[in-house]
Amino acid sequence: MQKESRVCQNCRNSFAIEPEDFLFYEKIDVPPPTWCPGCRNMRRMLWREEKTLYRDICKLCGKKIVTIHAPGGPFTVICRECYNSDKWDPLSYGRAYDFKRPFFAQYRELMEAVPRPALTGANLVRSDFTHACLNVKDCYYVFWSYFSENAENCYALLLSKNAYDCYVTDNSDHVYGSLHCNRLYKVRNGFFSDDCMNSSFIFDCVGCSDCFGCINLRKQKYRLWNEQFSKEEYYERLKYWDLGSYARLEEAKNKFRSLYLSTPHRFAHVVSSQDVTGDIIRDTKDCKTCFSALDGVEHCRYVYFGGLNLKDAWDTSIGGDTSNLMYETCAVTGHASRCFFSAGGTNCRDTYYSDWAANSSYVFGCISIKNKQYCILNKQYTKQEYEELLPKIKKQMEDIPYIDKKGRVYKFGEFFPPELSAYAYNEAFAFPWYPKTKEEVVGEGWQWRDPSERSYEISLKPENLPDHVRDVDDSITREVVGCAHKGICNEQCTTAFRISQAELEFYRKMNIALPRLCPNCRNAERLRWRNAYTLWRRKCMCNKAGHVHGDNPCAAEFETTFSPERREIIYCADCYRAEFL
Fold first, then answer.
1. In terms of C-beta distances under 8 Å and separation of at least 24 residues, what long-range contacts does 159-167 make, across chains too?
2. According to the model, what pLDDT value does residue 141 have?
């Protein structure tokens, strides 16, 4: 097989299908994709919710609930407890396959009939406002996190506590504003840093303590803006950088950004890995075009947020936990195998086009199936009936495809159409990574949800907050604080927010000025420190003598997430190592 160039059915740009891709498609018996890798990932991420919460009523028990689904929609939404109970049977919503109609139209009808969970998660203690979390305690507005406690406004915590405004942070305690960090203690605004403590504004630092405003350091101490000082002089100079003051915090942010832009960076964050391309990769091998591939990922392509011994997977968004042979899946985890074109699910095998399947196998087009086998559209079949129907359905999907409003064709081998997702584009996981305006989304024929009418009134404008946290009274917890963006950004701004008592005590303890942005806008600001999912072919920008390239500019080439238009100085691995390690 030879490499082929195709035109993406969605963006109309060309993309390549490599010989190894063809071998994988043949191995799992699916046709090659008609969308490019980026559009495929966007399409999958559109089928998973991000961080928007609503209030509603459980359609089964009638109690008030917090939910990821907007009220008044076409779906039957029930509380977490009812969803996990025996009060209802997913098979009771089953229906026979109609060979005269497109599969995806039938699936959407099933989506509207089968109850959907308001929130997911298990083993939660005083953590009602969390979603997709496991074993968390005293958490608020926390998503996709595990074995963590005392946290607010966080995403993807693991084994962490006392964390606020953090994104993908592991094994950490007393952390604020961190992004892709591991094993931090008492760190404020740490980015891509590991094994650090008592530090603030650090980027790509490892094994450091008592550092402020530092980049690319290893096992350093008493550094201020990358400059070495004695212990006494470091703490004397640090008095000026009092982050309890909002004015000083903003000054530090601006100075840190300037230092970041003037300091060379490695072309990709790759640690203990071999034969890989992409970014944010750790303990991984033989993986191409992968992003956030962590801990034992092997022989994968086009993985976005995958880890924990994920193997032999193509086009996987949010997956792992000893899963294998996955293709076009989103949020499928937990020892899954041979799962294709599915969203959500755990401990499943041989599943096609299903959502929230659990401990099931040999299912096609099912929703919320638990501990079942041989089901199609939530209807139970015998093994023989299932095996006879499956090839007929695949052929019917070829003969009678679903065609969306823009003329894009969906046959067997395509993931679910974006327009059929249960979530509006600006509520979905795709939105932060593939931002679009309302006009762009509506023009594609996809859903957009305007903000619901707010029932609160802002009682305190952000500019009227005390500059220093020491001057903040407990009464602040009763105020509705306006967001400085005032809802005019494209960041899902909530226009206002509250400061909880636990949050206020954390700011005081860590000496951090009160925020002036709502949690969603803070999250968007933090994510700007991470690159998107596009790889660019570039050359090393190093021209320093003494490196492996001698007196000539380095000629090394690589694939990087830093586009040519970016202002950062990008080094190859050898030049980065020679200068900083």
1. 162/506, 164/503, 164/506, 165/515, 165/519, 165/522, 165/523, 165/526, 167/523, 167/526, 167/527
2. 97
